[in-house]
Records
---
Amino acid sequence: MILSLEITGSYYLVVAALMFSIGAVGLLVRRNVLVMFMCVELMLNAVNLTFVTFAEMLDDVTGQVLVFFTLAVAAAEVAVGLAIIVAIFRRRRGATADDLTVLKG
Amino acid sequence: MIGGGIDTGTRIVGPDVDFLAIGPVLALAVAALVVILVRAILRKRGPVNQISLGVGLAGVAAAGVLLGIQWNEVRDDGTITTIAGAVRLDTFGVFLGVVVLAATAMSLFLAASYLEREELEAPEYYALMLLSAAGMLTMTTANDLIVVFVALELLSIPLYVLAAFDRRRLSSQESGIKYFVLGAFSSAVFLYGIALTYGATGTTSLTGIADFLSANTLFEQGTLLAGLALLLVGLGFKVAAVPFHMWTPDVYQGAPTPVTAFMSSATKAAGFAALLRLLGVAFPLYRTDWRPAILGLAVLSLAVGSIAAVIQTDVKRILAYSSIAHAGYILIGLQVDTARGRQASLFYLLVYAFMTVGAFAVITVATRKGDDKHSLDDYRGLALRRPVVGGLLGFFVLAQAGVPLTGGFVVKLEIFSSAVDAGEYGLAIVGVLAAVVAAFIYLRIAVALFTSPGGEAADASEDRPVDRWTAAVLAVTTAAVLFAGILPGAWLTFAKDATFL
């Protein structure tokens, strides 16, 4: 018996939505700044998957082009973000958000 | 044909570019690159600082002249759409461009003496601020969601660095990382909104989305509405509307004060530019869906911004909460969704830029070196010790409270009357109540300024004289706020001309 499972576009969209949710929840619950940072990357890649899937479903090349914009912007964001993280945690023990307590009120 | 069937003679035709439309952005970007080059080539600190400030101001001036030419062009000949529909130059974009540029110029002036005093790297600072301003100007004329996204990132990424610019001060670094994490989160949310909107309509062009929605009835609206909601969340972060405001008090408090002035005035204008354009150009047919959402944002921003400010004791934090409340007023003009409402919102953004930059300008000179003593106690008796400085801070907080004869009164009046005109009485009442609650905290600052500190008298010898750059900013902002309060006619006409989307 051959089990046939047709993978349609909506499967990819659901996977992307799950990835995005995992990233968003992770960002909100994790305390390590580097892990929070990875969660942002997960969210951005979920968006990329969504763009590519829609481009395929709509038979339109725009969505694929948009991925390049996202990648370029994400790279710039990583460079700046890591620089700030390095600058701030050079003088502290660990990279957890719980240590950031100067500003509150 | 040579080359395996490929016609090597084929010309690749790019889209037409109207350089006038992107002129101001180019001017700022070129100025920023020149500053970085000068910094790399010259080594001596003193001249480099002077040259980079000069280049930066020249870039801003050139952008200002180009905006003036643009204004005449689009007012007489109508909207210009260029670069394959990605950029749309209209009076609305030019108006907010003027707001952004005015705020940028004033923030550069404030930074000039601040950086010298705090011994920070001036050229990098100017370059980052110019790049951020270039992103904001791109945002005001963007007609494609992906351009909005790129502009959003171009304005945000330099701001993350600027917020963390004072490397020796922990609070500055902390504000940088907090702004970065929440900013990156909101950008990702915004981008997912673009993806869903693209999936539902097959285009990312704002006018394209509107055309598609008026020509087709969507069989299933879930994707589009989810996309629209995510876009609103992403922009809600940028304009600091409740419940997306958590970063605002921390970032405003920790960032160097000239950066805070820049963020509260220019970033807000750019965020509202994108919001107004998105809702007004792309989704006018879905107004019954987004108006309740904007209503919620406006009411929450007014309530939280006004009430939470009362329990704060740090002046920069108080001003941060008040900027959240001001976002609420501007959202009222957006929510009523009439030409009058849009005019009131634009007018509010223009006058608010002067009020907030003025207040933060006083704060840069009122405190001593270090930029971390901003509690109400530090300001107690300031007006007795230094009448001009303290008096001006009192003037700007009273203007923000909406005292008559200041611009703050007229803009609030415009917002409320646009709401009443549209029959939104409830919203107008919420706005007035919020203004009453907020008046309490502004009065608290004003009273603190004029009461004697008790205990030991503050050491007046540590007070800094007001340098000429800051004095210029204070003169301009004071004049603008008074002028808007006494003779608002010309400003209102300017804002009215800019309401055509």
---
Amino acid sequence: MSGVGLVWSNLFRKKVRTVLTLLSVLVAFVLFTMLRSVAVAFDSGGFGPAGVDRLQVSPKFSIIDPLLISQLREVERVPGVAAVTHADWFGGIYQDSRNFFPKFPVSPKSYFEMFSEFAIDPDQLEAFQNTRTGAVAPAGMAARFGWEVGDKIPIEGDIYPKLDGSRLWEFDLVGTYLHGDRRDETGSGVFLFHYDYFDEAKQFGQGQVGWLTVRVEDPEQAAEVASAIDALFENSLNPTRTATEDEAQREFARQQGDIGLMTTGILAAVFFTILLLTGNTMAQSLRERVPELAVLKTFGFTDGSVALLVLAEAVLLGVVGGALGVGLGTLAMMAIEPQLQQFFGLIEVTWPVVASALGIALLLGLVVGSVPALTARRLSIVDALRAR
Amino acid sequence: MAIVELRGIEKSYTKGRETVDVLTGINLEIDEGDYLALMGPSGSGKTTLLNMIGGIDHPTSGSVVVGGESLNGMSGRALARWRSRNVGFVFQFYNLLPVLNARRNVELPLLLTKLSGKQRKKNADTALEIVGLGDRASHKPGELSGGQQQRVAIARAIVADPSLLVCDEPTGDLDRDTAEEILDLLAILNREHGKTIVMVTHDPKAADHASHVLHLDKGRLSGDAS
């Protein structure tokens, strides 16, 4: 038997109590792992790696305000701008509202030139350009819904009705594309269709777009270019806010709600409860074996080593519960991530999340164990044996 | 040769504004290999005196020398180290750890030594053999009778091979027959293994096993009967 064996044996003196406490710690860390991962994904925009040379030009005050397609021409003339494209949020429902995926009307050629990391067959891109009702879908999404090139994809326009009052938009699937990342496996990504068709067929908002994406000639000049673009529209009816693509994704996420603050609030409440629960368990466990600890001291265990034994039990409880929780949370996240991805983008349990969970688990053990350890340290052999 | 030398021991506690004298003017020498029984009524100071001999309590004044080492000036840490090498304790209520089996309970004091795990286990098994419980090594305290638990506690007390055993009412929780077995075992440890034993007891029959009996009354040693 080693010191660790002694600590482990003591921890399971009351098996049911320890297992229940361990379970509550475990559940807290499952929650931590999942919520923090969602918050991290949400905060980063979660839609894949942003281009270092791309800026996003958005409406200054709200994502529901429009920009004008005519602004694109003016942006093209700003010094330092290499290329510009545009997109818009279409909304829309495919068959059932649970089949959520983003749908953007775009100009095919400029869009795929801008997002050159997306891979599309040149013939299919040409077909997309030349077919006004054409659309392309991520290959994973096509597989997910069983679409094939040549299929008609009906979408109900919940934001945009058509000129004739109907809400049924029908698109001809002319191709599929690959993101080159995990979205290809999970079937998420953006359904793209022809802006020209959208602009002429929608009931209102002609000539409007949601945002512009700009490629700058020199990424080191991105800040100056962004300022120049915003200055250009400062006193117009459609003022802009230009940011790097990365920052724009985060900004978009923040406009949905401060997920980080919400998750922090929930987790703080959970951990406060766990702190009280495990603290109570440790205090109760200490009370039950005051004479035993005194006996250890009679054998020659020092005050410090007895305190360390007690502290180690709390730390072991916290770290084992935390590690199991992180493991289970990771598995659970992997299981539900494809469903969450459409709302939060790519979600991964990152090493910083794992490290912070284990750090908190260690801290939890130290905080919970410190008072019992101090009590054990101060324990007088004579008083403890007399109390027996 | 004296293994325990107590000179001018006084011990008092303060209870509120009142000072309670527990031990007064104790002078005592215990020879190596002796088997001493300390008797006296409750509250006479027997356990306090035993605790001082075992290095778990300090006198208010006076000197305690055990095995040639003065315990008076020792820090808590030094005393702990000293106890681990020199004293084995046996208690009335055994004080075994219920979560550990007999072997592991006996092995506990050896965790403080540099012995390997294998050697610790071997020594623990030897100690259990000495007390006649070699076949109960894997039993937990809850699976043993009171007498067997006290034997395990004695094995734990001798496993580090201390020269001095201090026993506080070792038969106080046992029936007569089992108590006799325990007392016989202590006598064997004294006679055949050369352990010096200081035993506190209320029981005159238990005291009969000792080679010397001292009486304490109101904190004073009142006589020496062999």
